[in-house]
Each structure stands twice: as structure tokens, then as C-alpha cells.
# Entry
Amino acid sequence: MVLAPISPAVAAAPVLSTFARTSPATVDAGAPVSFSFTTSVAVKRVEVGLRSAAGTHILAWTSAGAKAGTVAGVASPSSWPNGSIEVSYVQVISTVGASQVYYRGGGVYPPGTGTSPFGDPAAQDFKIKNPLLPYAAPVPTSLVPAKATFAPGQTAGVQIKLSQLAQSVRLIYRDASEVTTFELAWTGTPAPGPQTVTATGAVTAAQASGAYTLERIEVTYFDGLAKDSYLRDGTLERTSPVPLGTAVRVGLASGDFAVSNPAKVLQKLVPTVAPSITGAMVYNTVLEIQRGTWPVEPEFAGFQWYRNGSPIDYAVKDEYQSNMSSDPGNMIWVKMTARAAGYLPASVSTLAVGPMPRRVWVGNLNITGDASVGGQLRLEHGPAGVDPVGGQPSYTYVWKRNGTPIPGATSRDYRPTIADKGVVITAGVTARFDAGSAVTEVVDLRGPISDKSRGKGFNADGTGDIFARDTGGNLWLYPSNGSGGWLPAQKIGQGWNGFNSLFSPGDFDGDGNVDVMARDGAGRLFLYQGNGQGGWLRSFQIGQGWGSVKDIVAPGDFNGDGTADLIARDASNTMVMYPGNGRGGFLTPYTLSGGWGDFNAFISPSSRSIFARDSSGNLRSYSGSGNGYFHENAWTPNAFGAYAGYGWAGFSRIGAPGDFDSDGVPEVYGIHPDGRLTMFYGLGHIALKRQATIGWGWNAFNTVF
# Structure
């Protein structure tokens, strides 16, 4: 048979059966205070918490174990001030460690362990008769040093008058370094009432010569239940709300004295590198203090920042947030005190910094121009402003490729290269009025950089050129000189009579060079790759079935994907988009719009735009939307095309060479039946600037493009 062990019984909470004060209702100071009790079980401790105006006093009874006894103590004349004493709680602890607490007001802990059988402990309250210890703090009313100057080996002493009984006094001094402390102290148990005591301390060889400034007086009283600290600046730190009474406290300066110790004379703290102000010289900056170099690491205090020599209100920390309205254009400096043990303190000031930055702004940033390889982009922006006003801004620019500055791209204009294909291009401008008054704004180029357009020319000089085929099948290049004239013509091919359509799409294969396309009588389309130097790489067929196409026009990057495209008018007078794939081929074609039957010539003077000449000789402009379609004016082209000019029926050919005079604006030309070539400068952007005849004999060619 197995017997299960029996669990020990849970200790029952002891019950305080009776509790009564056995001392009088009024107890004289120094007389006994006692309470009798009985309990339901044997207890080893009974504790009574009493509260006077000074704080909590605890009386306790202890035993090896009993059910009755008397809790007794003495009403200390030095810590039980005259007045009422409240019984705040009674705690009993049994010999097995169980506890129960009876609180003032009738509460019992732990909860649920019953109620007080003897009633509320408050019924046992009493009074203390102690007229010599009123409920008041001992205020220092006088300080008299025994001597004005002490020397090592002597005892420094200061006589302190107090308005009331205290148990200890500490006088805390700082020597001439204002860092190292030195203390005088007194401890005793005098009779209640006003008193005079002397705090003392030994002066040793470690004490430095100079003034000793009394920084704090600490007074402990009511047998340690309360402590007050009187500070030199007049403030008071307290641990108890004891009334100060009517006594007038003494100023701490009257307790100062000096030490004469020729062996330890403090030298002034001097920096080897003076403090300075650091911080970015930008609008609304935070200025900080670079603390300099010192013989020892000092402490810094007493910061005061100045603006043009006048203290700045509330600027008293070790850093300063620049005031946006008052600081711009002014000088700023800071003054502070440096302290270190073993040295005299130093008041130091930094050099002034400034003028502080003014608020600068520049807006309306936008990148305009030809966003193609070899084109020209320009960062447009509004004029910079500054507050407070004054001065003229200077501007600096930077163009970046995927966030990295492009070498040499530091002007307002930028010509994209093939390295800019497929990356993010940004342009930034910094407007600056003075050293700190500046702002930088950045804008992204919308859309990708397109392949080089036809208007960038066939040779290496980046200017607009014209191709011409003579009756012998020779292909000629007429390069511009970049200023509205010609360089010598160059024969760049022969045997070109087999083609019934010639045009330049720009860089169609993505290698950075302008190409030429040709359609033969069988409807095959060929790409002739340019080498970028006015010659050829190779040619190959890129399409067939183009024989029924009436017109082919090369608008550059029409759909905004960065590659050159073609637009063709088919036999039904419908415009069809042939997107280039950037590698010499096509993506899937799609229809743009119909109704183009009234036009007899098409040219593309700039990327994403087409000029069409109607049967009345009017030249109309149709711009692309940037996503591969025309704007609304091309859905009914005859009615809504913007007029670019009239009277164009008299030209046997029209064309668009690109920017012929290097002013950033594309041109349009017309060839008269008598062979004159007239260039219309700026007409590629509709606004005609001027026109001039720049050549004769062009009727000798059967194709000009």
C-alpha cells in the first residue's frame, strides 16, 4: 500500500483580535508611546506606523512567538513635532511568515482575509506635546567664517545660526577653479529650538589658493526625515513640505572665505586652439561649437550667442538654431565659460561667422530642347530671389546621369550622347548670392533620350546636312558649315538610281550614327548604316511590301520610347505608325488616322512633328502627343492642322535638314523650279525668324532629302 504525502497546510492569515493605545491621549515629548494587542495565532512581529507632520515613525514589537504584547517606543523630542499623530497602519506577522495589514480607514490586506475586529486604527490617534519643536524648518539665518583666510594645516570653520533644531549641516564650497569642491560639516543632537553650530573642515596642501565660494547649504532635521538644500542663486531643494516659517534666510555669499596656499596657485585656463563655430552655411542652419584644444578637457557652461554684438534672447545652449527672420545677412558668435579642476576658469568667445545665409529660391525648372543623341537640352528656370533682398545671383549648373555628374556638363545647355540612352538624366541649378546664401534645385528630364535624329547630320560635326541624288545615280552630301552656309560637297555613293524613295530616319539601328533608308522598285526597304564620319558601314534589307506606300516620313522618336520610328501614308491615305526597335528593325505597326488624301508632300523638321503640304499650297503642322499618336488636330487633318505657312505650291520640293545655323531651332527649305534653294530659318518650330536663298542649281537633282 502506497501512501500519498500530505501537502502542508496553507498558513492562515493572523488575526489582530484587539489593538488599543495604552499611553495617554496627549504624550509629552520624550515620554513613552505604547499599544497593546492580542492575536488569533502566535506572531513574531507587530509593527505600528505613525505619521506626524515631520513624516512616518515606526514602532515595532518582536518575539519568538506570542499571542499578546505591547508595542512601545519613545516620542523623540527631535523628530516628533508638536501636534497630532495619526495611526496609519498596523501589521502583524505570524511565526510561520503569514502577514496581515490593517490600514487607516478600515482596509485589510491581503484582500478577502476579513475585516478589522478592533475597528479603524484611526481611533487610536493621539497628540504630542512638544512646544520646543514646532512644525517648521531650521532656516540658516547667519553665516560667520572664523577667519577671512585659512592656510593649509588649519581648520576652516563657519558659524551657522539656525532658526530651529537640526541634526546635521553641510556647507559645500567650490574653489577658484569653480569645479573642485571643499566641504565643511557639523553633526550633533542639540536641544530643540534655535541654535548656533559651527561647521568645520581641515584645510590641506591639496587645497588651492584663492576664493572659496559657498554654493550650497544642506540642512538635515527631524532625525533625518527631512532635508533642505539652500543654493547660492536663492533657489531651494526640499525633501519635505515643512513650512519655512518667518525666519529670513541668509545669503550664501556671507559664508565665503579664502585659502592662502603659495604651493598651489591656479593658473588661468588658456586654449592652444580657440573654440570656433561649425555648421553648414545654409539657410536655417544649426550652429554648433567646436570646443578647441586645451591643456585639460574642460567643462563648458554659461553659453550666450550674439548677433552683431547683441545677445540673442534664449540662445543659451551649446548649439544654436539659426533664426530665419533675424539672422540672415548678420554675423553670429558665442561666448562661454570653460572650467577645469586645477585652473582658473576662462571666459572665451569664438570668432564671428557669417554673414549668415539668406533665404534663396529659384523655381519653374524645366528641361527643354531636343532630347536626342546629339541634340541640345537647356535647363530653363526663373530668376532667383533672396530675402533679405540685395545683390545679384550667380548660377552654376550640373547635369547628372543616374545621379552621377556627367564630366564637363556644367553649363546651362547639354548635348546628350549615346551614353545617355536608357538612363535617368537630371539637371540642377545652384543660385548663389554670397558665400552661404544659395539654393540648389533639380529637375528630371521627362522621358528617355532618343536616338540621334536626322537633323544632327551625317558627318561628325553635328550640324544639319542635305542629301541629293543626281541623274547619274550619284549620291551627294552637302554639309552645312554650322552658320547657315555650306562646306564643300562630298560624293558619298553611286548606283542609287535603282531606288524610288530615299530618306534619312536618323539613327535607326542605335549605334549613334545617322543612317539612310532606300526603297527599290520591288517594294523592298533597305537600311544604309552611316559610320558617323560621312561614309557607310554596310547595308541590309529591313522590309518588303512597301511598294504601295505613297509617302514615308521619319519623325524621329514618335512614341517616346527613345528609338527612331517611321510613319507611312498607304494607298488609302491612312497614316500607319511603324515603331523602330532601336536595332535596325520594327515593332508591330498600327494605324494612326485616316483622311490624309489632300496632301502631296510630308516632312519632319523636328522630333515628333510632321509638316504636310495640302493641295492649296498651305503648309500645316501636326505634332505628336509623345505616346505614339497625333494630338487631336490629326484626327481630321485637313481641318485642324496648324498653319505653318501658305504659298508653298510654288516649290518643286520641300525638306527639313535639322538645325542648319546652330541656333538650336530646326529649319525648313523649299526648292524653286528654277533651282533656287531658300532656307526658312526657325520654321521647324513654326515661328519663322528669317529666310534666305543659299544655293542654286538644285533642279539638277532628282531627289533631295
